[in-house]
Predict the 3D structure of the following.
Amino acid sequence: MERRANPRVKEEWLYVDDPLKHVIESNGMTEHGPRGTDITVERAENANMDLSQQRSGHIKSSVPKGENQWSQYPQQDL
């Protein structure tokens, strides 16, 4: 395994020489755990939820209010 810095997110990436072997040895990566960062799983989940709400709000504000239909039937032509 090799660690490489990722300056964009200020974390290290772990490059695995033999990914299949690593997945088998780590029980489907359930025993792998986070590495190369000081962000906890809880902080990552909170950040994901915040980003999800932000993106959802952006989409909802872009879609017209009320019922929306992406196409009309019966179609007269393609």
